[in-house]
Fold:
Amino acid sequence: MEFVTPEGLRRDGRRPKELRQLKCEVGVFPHADGSATFNIGNTQVIATVFGPRVADSRGESSTDRAIVKCAYSESHFAAGSRRQRKGRGDRRTAELASTVRKALEETILVELFPKAQIDLGIQVLQADGSVLAACINAAMLAVADAGIPMRDMIAATTVGYLESTPLLDINHTERTGNGPELLLALHVNQDKAIIITEEGAVNPETLEGMAELAEQGCKAVGKFLRQSLLEHIQRHATVRGLTVK
Amino acid sequence: MVCVGDRIDTDMQEGFLRGHGTQVLDGQLVATECGLVERVNKLVSVRPLRQRYSAALGDIVIGRVTEVAGKRWRLDIGARQEVSLQLSSVDLPGGAQRRRTAEDEIKMRTIFKEGDLLSAEVQSLHADGSIALHTRSAKYGKLTGGDLLYVPAALVKRQKHHFTNLTTMGITMILGCNGMVWLAPTHEGSSAAASSTSAPEQTAAKAPASAAEREAVSKAANAVRLLASLSMNISPASLLNVCKVCAERGVQAKDMLTASFIGAMLEEESQQRLQTSL
Structure:
């Protein structure tokens, strides 16, 4: 299959350095402490946050910081073909959950909440590539909605490499090309990489190109996330009659 | 208005104090929460619009007993830290003032048991962040025969009186600072929600509320739900305002959460704000 036409267009009509359409909504569930949905193209993820609250088990909790727990699940109808997974016990699921957890643990100021626990719930409704990046973005929005202090804004994107072109934000069709895939989660304002994972063999020069593109992508996503959060605050502050300068 | 990671401008003043929701990075003040910047003299802090309840001394809260532990009850009030109510900080049945004996400890379940709903006051905040409550007043204690609502804690502002008698509606309202709101019909003789520790049997044996009382409670409850869904501040005044608009338009309690009434309420609110700003 040809993934990039000679004119430099991808199968869905995007340029190699183009993101899919971004959409998000903050504060979707009134009963969670924080919640958000995040869409990138056809990928759709819902994240909820409960906490900080007293840790369930004293053995797991730490006296100087909060622990972060993450429950990840993918709907059976999320991917193209309806397939039965073993559910939560799945190894892939466990790995995704632990990556999201690590990203947020690095971001949340956990040392402010000793003996506490923060629960993240991630539900993938539609999986069309870049799922993990979408999960991290959704989780960040939900945590921000819950008013939990964070070191910095976090934003994540995926970059693929097919037909000697780095492709930003690859979708499901491009993943079937079995090229290398790089995930980058960035603290946007501090330019600090939080998570870098790479699958598939690449040479160092290619990787560098991919990382650079991923960084640009993260910044674009970060800008969008910041804008959405500010709009959300603006709306709520107006309703409550708080002064906004 | 700031978002996580934004720089907060501190140029106008020499020196600043780092408040909640901020951190210092390379001598610059940076927000760690999304919300509104508040400046009090040199103290700069960010106030988020929604956050889990963090207790302050003297707050009136509503909570549910989750565990009876030795010499204390553990409560769920939706806070960040552990919450306990010591046996020594409740009124004993009969109003006796004396040392708590081991016998009292054994009979703790006769005062409050798991699942009971209480109103209480924050007595102290310990160094490790845990919260201690007390119910040493006739107005605090077990709550029965009413309606409990959960709203975001940020919508309940601290005010002079958290126990209010809405005489026009015949309702007693307890506004918990932790975002739990209790609504119950007012009963003659007892000013606050049927107090409780002295005579738990009495409250249980009380006659069921009449249809009119139940309707008044549901009306007030729907008014609170409406305010919460619009994320407007919840206070006796705002609640009465919703009920007033409701009465003006002849809307039944069951129709208060329909889109048409919510629209009407928003219209009314914007009218009022226009008038006050003029």
In short: Chain A touches chain B through 42 residues (CB under 8 Å). The longest strand of chain A covers residues 43-54. The two ends of chain A are 54 Å apart (CA to CA).
